[in-house]
Design brief:
Elements (H helix, E strand, L loop, with lengths): L11 H15 L6 H8 L13 H13 L11 H18 L14 H16 L4 H24 L12 H14 L1 H11 L9 H18 L2
Helix pairs in contact: 1-2, 1-3, 3-5, 4-6, 4-9, 6-9, 7-8
Amino acid sequence: MPPAQVRRPVTRERAIRAAVALADAGGIQSLSMRKLAAELGVEAMSLYYHVKSKEDILDGMLDLVHSEFSTPRAGEEWRTAMRARAESTREVLARHPWAISIKARTSPGPATLSHLDSTIGCLIAAGFMMPMVGHALSVLDSYVQGFAQQEASLPLDSSGDISAATEDIIAQQESMADSFPHLGEMATSLILQPGYAYANEFEFGLELILDGIDLARSSD
């Protein structure tokens, strides 16, 4: 007889990582306590020995996502650090697009708080006054998360190319030219041009924001 297979113990961390994997594979709507329990090889009710509720799982999932963001440190050049943070956040949200649509049900987790605290510390060490820290974080996070949400909703390939929708755009060109001339012009002169990728718009917007923050703090 083969030896009995050793079952890995269920812990909160393991349950959260399994939940993230399920959401990555099938979207947040595919996640249920029953499916998560099956993935872990236990009965659904057994999960409640390790997590308080599904809301507790969701909070842990968000905290795990935040732990993957690039975290600025005091002493780093602020603009380089904020650019790395923005690019990292976008990449992480592309891996976990479900995270854009859910919010913490209770208080933020330790990874989230640590990330924010270090980011604030980096800006303060660079000479930012606290009101400007608030402005900078608000506009950067709104832009990055909004862009990530837009990317998740568009028919883009992994490089950010919109060629997957090219045939639909071409099919609509004639009607667009008559009814929506400016959209038609944008399609022919920009979107359908070789080498165009919506993903490239991210860097343009990010540089505008960083320039604006730099100008605002200089005149503060």
